[in-house]
Amino acid sequence: MAVLSLSRRTAVRTARILGVASASAALALGAAGNALACNINEFSAEAKCDGTKGVIIVTDKDASGTPATVTVYLENNGSDAKQVGSQDIIGSRAGETITFSEDWSPNAEYRIRVQAGKDKDHLIVDKDITPNLTTPSEGCSKDESTPPASPSPSQSASTPAEESDSPAPTPTPSQAESTAPAGAASNAPSPAAGESNLAETGANSNTGVIAGVAIALVAVGGGAVFLGLRRRGTNSSR
Fold first, then answer.
1. Calpha distance 133→125 (Å, rounded)
2. Mean of the pLDDT values across residues 202-210?
């Protein structure tokens, strides 16, 4: 009886050990399978420029190498405006890329759909990359960017004044205004040439003294003549 009970205990313990080992192995295999399973988070997209042309690049970092199909749609107000293209890809841990030629506009929105799985009827992944791809605000061409806001009427009205870099010319006085002082001076009567000379030689010269001396000489000469005539008359009467 003791031997029988001991063997039963050993069998139960062995079964328990095998069960735990099997469960651990199943968990390990499940975790490994999940680690290698394709996931939407392993896909990414970005808009770039190839010279002056736009492209959309999708990267697949699926380490399991599950075949996938990527389809790109241009969005407009929440709906598909057009299908840009569809390509197949097999990812890798380092990452594999596919390129869609698309001359995208600034601030455009694109939806990228990923369908992964070896069997199209039993897809592992059938989802969109979230969020949707939004292109940069500046286009690949230098003159292609988000249009600026239209100027207000006051700004457009002041444009001619702003375009002139040189200062406004200073108004010059008219000929009548510039010659007015000369005209006023010319209206005053100008003195005659003789009057000006007399005025200059009258007050500041010795004319009065000379005239006095001349009168005195005339008087002296007249007296001498009178005396001479008188003497002649006296001598003749004798």
1. 19
2. 59
Please name every residue paired with 3 in a beta bridge, in sequence order, or none if there are none: none
What per-residue confidence (pLDDT) applies to 226? 75
Residue with tokens 């002056």: 52
How much is the CA Rg of the chain, to the nearest whole Å? 63
> Please, what is the Cα angle at 28 between 26 and 30, to 5 degrees?
65
CATH of 40-134, one of 3.20.20.80, 2.60.40.10, 3.10.20.30, 3.30.70.20: 2.60.40.10
How much of the chain is helix, strand and coil, in % rounded to 5? 40, 25, 30
SS3 226: helix
* Sequence letter at residue 74: L
**Are residues 47 and 104 in contact, defined by beta-carbon separation less than 8 angstroms?**
yes
Any idea which of 54-63, 125-134, 225-234 has the lowest mean pLDDT? 225-234
Q: Shortest CA distance to 96 belongs to which of 132, 57, 144?
A: 57
Confidence of residue 46 (pLDDT cuts 50, 70, 90): very high
Secondary structure of residue 93 in the 3-state scheme = coil
Cis peptide before 131 (omega within 30 of 0): yes
How many residues are listed for the chain in this entry? 238
Given this model, what pLDDT does residue 236 score?
A: 59
Domain segments of the chain: what residues? 40-134
**Which run of H or of E encompasses 83?**
strand 79-90
